[in-house]
Specification:
elongated, 3-stranded antiparallel sheet, alpha+beta, about 50% helix
């Protein structure tokens, strides 16, 4: 490895000179990189020497820019058959957030400080904390794809994640606890909501609450998957935001859910009035096709909430000076959270008191860890003092030692 001066003629400006860093990369191949200043060449050589020693060096000639790597990432997702919604989200993250700030930077120039600066610039540009997190995950996925292609050795996004995990321990993985009455309705609130649901949206809200369906699963539910005699519902498909029918996101999403009598009776009545269509959907639009998600929320859930008094003050007023109220729960997922709490709660509190593994199956979670991470705090806590006393009596007898 060396730094040497280089001179070359120029027909317009006369003799020019610069500095060349000469080194051997990790594959034993000789590399050269030119600089205008000697100290820049020396600094590069020190960095390259360290990276070659640590096995993390990639020469400029063997890498690409973040923008090019992102385009390859999109093509890879298309080729592997990812859902259209997923590809769209990838493209939005790449075109709107990643390319404008990092698109022209070569992959081998990315580092932990660069990633930290990227976060700062995103926040300064008005991106929300949630968006910063999601875009960073996409950037890490781009770099992972580039690693598989041999375009880079390092993935500083994942290195940063491991560093935070080591520093913060389990707290870095801690989730915000769902709060009853804040993130999911209380049982009384749910009853009021269903009492005020009208028309074709009452069977929808009733089924989503007592079957815990994801919105996409409800929109893709077929009558052929509902057994009103046995009182069961089979989840076998879903409808995405483009109203295209496909399989559930994971194998665990395919599941059978028992229905309480009130839901069975509601669906029996609804089946007689349900619009008919080629897809045989349980909750179609008025023409029998797949309904739009926002239509179902705005026309079904929100009016029922407002009618039931489940509202929050927006802090704004209308033309008459009256407070503008908004629905307390913005989407269907609040009903899915309530369903989970109903499965978990004790029987004396009106719940089913099911074991965690059964809750996982009914929810369609791919692992028990997801169930515990999301709903673990809702499981009843045993009376530890009573159990300790019982254990003590079993060992030492009723009167102790």
């Amino acid at each position: 490895m060396s730094v040497r001066k280089r001179r070359w003629p120029d027909p317009y400006t006369g003799p020019n000179e610069g500095w060349v860093a000469d080194y051997i990369d990790g594959r034993g191949k000789r590399r050269r990189k030119s600089f205008a200043r000697k100290k820049d060449a020396e600094q590069f050589l020190l960095t390259a020497k360290s990276e070659v020693r640590d096995g993390v060096h990639t020469a400029d000639a063997e890498t690409v820019t973040v923008g090019v790597a992102g385009d390859l990432w999109i093509k890879s997702g298309d080729a592997s058959g990812l859902e259209r919604t997923t590809i769209d989200q990838r493209r939005q993250h790449l075109e709107l957030h990643i390319k404008p700030m990092l698109g022209t930077m070569r992959l081998n120039r990315l580092s932990l400080p660069v990633i930290r600066d990227f976060h700062d610039r995103l926040r300064e540009a008005g991106r929300s904390p949630g968006m910063v997190k999601r875009v960073t995950v996409s950037l890490g996925s781009i770099l992972g794809d580039a690693q598989d292609r041999g375009l880079t050795v390092r993935n500083p996004v994942r290195e940063a994640s491991r560093t935070r995990s080591a520093r913060n321990g389990s707290q870095s993985r801690a989730r915000k606890r769902l709060a009853v009455g804040v993130d999911l309705p209380t049982t009384q609130e749910l009853k009021r909501l269903l009492d005020h649901a009208i028309g074709r949206y009452r069977p929808l809200l009733m089924t989503m609450a007592f079957a815990g369906l994801r919105a996409s699963e409800a929109r893709g539910l077929q009558w052929s998957d509902v057994d009103l005699l046995k009182g069961t519902l089979q989840v076998s498909q879903r409808a995405d935001r483009y109203r295209e029918i496909g399989a559930p996101k994971s194998h665990a999403g395919i599941r059978s859910i028992p229905l309480p009598p009130i839901v069975v009776n509601t669906l029996k009545e609804w089946k007689l009035a349900c619009p008919k269509g080629e897809l045989g959907l349980v909750f179609p639009n008025t023409e029998g096709g797949v309904d739009f998600h926002q239509n179902m929320v705005h026309r079904g859930m929100w009016p029922a909430e407002i009618a039931a008094g489940l509202t929050v003050d927006t802090g704004k007023v209308d033309e008459d000076g009256k407070a503008i109220l908004a629905p307390k729960y913005p989407g269907f997922h609040a009903l899915r959270h309530w369903f989970a709490s109903w499965l978990i709660n004790r029987k004396v509190d009106g719940g089913l008191e099911l074991p965690a593994k059964t809750v996982q199956t009914r929810m369609g979670h791919s692992s028990i860890q997801i169930t515990f991470d999301t709903y673990g705090h809702l499981f009843p806590v045993a009376d530890e003092q009573a159990e300790l006393k019982a254990a003590e009596r079993a060992i030492f007898g009723p009167h102790g030692t």
